């Protein structure tokens, strides 16, 4: 059970969730003294606003505002750390959604504690009936946050691959870890990216069957455990958060955990390319030409454009398995952040139906993204005089698009494919989203796969 949530019944104080347009009715049903207190305190029920309710013997409860009802779990995201430390609460009957309350509360209670004392205990929420799925989601998200927040010294390629193995073991899946000569032969671009580090690269291949006749969904995650930029060295400011460059892998593992724990009638193929982009005499060099799994030769225009080299071999392998869809996740380009900021991952997709469903799934669970174009007019910018293509464009513009166009070269046109370019980090504390690693798009991916399973198997649960 996550910190901040308990399955034990207790004498928790009532937490009243109040919509702004229902505030008058809520106040009319309160004891007159409590209603007068809230009016005097200026409580307006804006989203996330909290007011404690006094009682004759101390604290009688609390009210949290839902605004106009569109804040979702984030309206509850500040409660675990905003209500009195160690206090116990139960969601009172009314406007509150049990699943949203559980998800927001649990995600807000999270703090990275691997190398830091836990600090004050959060307030605790009794798990409301019908919110078990939300708790499962929060557990998967927090596990991904732990991976992203782990220092690179603690989480190298071997350890990241072991995280995939451990996930598989918990859910009856298989997981093969490809290393050494088998990796060099089968995933040569991955091997080249990781060749400069004393910590050897790995590819983890997780397979899970929820239904033998279910569609095969392939999830590919960039797992660069630290990105120095290679010989094209990043400046200090650019290197500061590069422990999070494996967040794409953490996201696909979180999505896979949700799918497996939900028992969805699909087949999963999860690929994690785990490497460290470091500097040594064995590191790839600018203008080197690399072999890839697909057979295309890639000239290295910049060693700091390594994530797409990891993904290209994963996409080629996934394509060979005949999937119904491939989705990759990666902290790939700064250009996507310039275009969309930290909260909106960039979506690129070769299939309009898949894109529409993925956008809708993200909006439904408040895990949004924004679609950018795979503009064919920029494809020639990847031309190289010495190889089939370059890993960087000839022009310093549209970097997120040209990175996606590079990846598209490794997916056959007939396979629906989506690429998600993530930031995967919260720059500051916000309700439900503490500073540090964030598993952006994991909930959206789970919702997409659940929706697809529901269409194919109407009896399937969420």
Automatic annotation (TrEMBL):
The record, for PANTHER family, names: LEUCINE AMINOPEPTIDASE-RELATED, PEPTIDASE B
Q: What is this protein called?
A: Leucyl aminopeptidase family protein
TM ranges: none
The record's GO molecular-function terms, alphabetically, read: aminopeptidase activity
Domain Cytosol aminopeptidase, by residue range, is: 302-309
Q: Which UniProt keywords apply?
A: Aminopeptidase, Hydrolase, Manganese, Protease
Q: Which InterPro entries match?
A: Leucine_aapep/pepB, Macro_dom-like, Peptidase_M17_C, Peptidase_M17_N_1
Which protein family is named in the record? Belongs to the peptidase M17 family.
């Amino acid at each position: 059970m996550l910190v901040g949530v308990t399955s034990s019944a207790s004498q928790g104080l009532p937490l009243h969730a109040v919509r702004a347009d229902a505030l008058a009715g809520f106040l009319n049903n309160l004891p007159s003294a409590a209603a007068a207190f809230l009016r005097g305190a200026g409580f307006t029920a804006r989203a996330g606003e909290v007011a404690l309710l006094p009682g004759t013997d101390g604290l009688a409860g609390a009210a949290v505002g839902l605004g106009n009802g569109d804040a979702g779990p984030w309206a509850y995201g500040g409660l675990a750390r905003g209500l009195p430390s160690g206090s116990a609460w139960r969601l009172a009957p009314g406007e509150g959604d049990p699943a949203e309350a559980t998800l927001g509360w649990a995600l807000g209670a999270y703090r990275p504690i691997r190398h830091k004392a836990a600090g004050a205990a959060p307030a605790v929420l009794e798990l409301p009936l019908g919110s078990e799925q939300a708790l499962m989601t929060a557990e998967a998200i927090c596990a991904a946050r732990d991976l992203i927040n782990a220092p690179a010294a603690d989480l190298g390629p071997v350890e990241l691959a072991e995280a995939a193995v451990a996930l598989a073991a918990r859910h009856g899946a298989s997981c093969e870890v490809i290393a050494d000569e088998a990796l060099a032969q089968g995933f040569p671009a991955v091997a080249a990216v990781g060749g400069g580090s004393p910590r050897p690269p790995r590819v983890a291949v997780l397979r899970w069957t929820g239904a033998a006749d279910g569609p095969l969904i392939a999830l590919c995650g960039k797992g660069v455990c630290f990105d120095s930029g290679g010989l094209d060295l990043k400046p200090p400011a650019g290197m500061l958060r590069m422990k999070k460059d494996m967040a794409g892998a953490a996201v696909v593992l979180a999505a896979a955990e949700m799918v497996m724990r939900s028992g969805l009638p699909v087949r999963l193929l999860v690929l994690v390319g785990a490497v460290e982009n470091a500097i040594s005499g064995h590191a790839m060099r600018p203008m080197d030409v690399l072999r890839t799994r697909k057979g295309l030769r890639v000239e290295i225009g910049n060693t700091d454009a390594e994530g797409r080299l990891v993904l290209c071999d994963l996409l080629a392998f996934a394509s060979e398995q005949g999937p119904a869809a491939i989705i990759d996740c990666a902290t790939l380009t700064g250009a996507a952040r310039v275009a969309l900021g930290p909260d909106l991952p960039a979506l690129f997709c070769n299939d309009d139906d898949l894109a529409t469903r993925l956008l809708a799934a993200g909006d439904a669970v408040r895990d949004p993204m924004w679609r950018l174009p795979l503009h064919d007019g920029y494809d020639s910018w990847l031309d190289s005089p010495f190889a089939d293509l370059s890993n960087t464009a000839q022009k310093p513009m549209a970097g997120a698009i040209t990175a996606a166009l590079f990846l598209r070269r490794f997916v056959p046109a007939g396979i629906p494919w989506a690429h998600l370019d993530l930031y995967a980090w919260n720059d500051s504390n916000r309700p439900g989203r503490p500073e540090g690693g964030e598993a952006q798009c994991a909930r959206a991916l789970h919702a997409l796969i659940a929706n697809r399973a529901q269409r194919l198997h109407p009896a399937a649960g969420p």
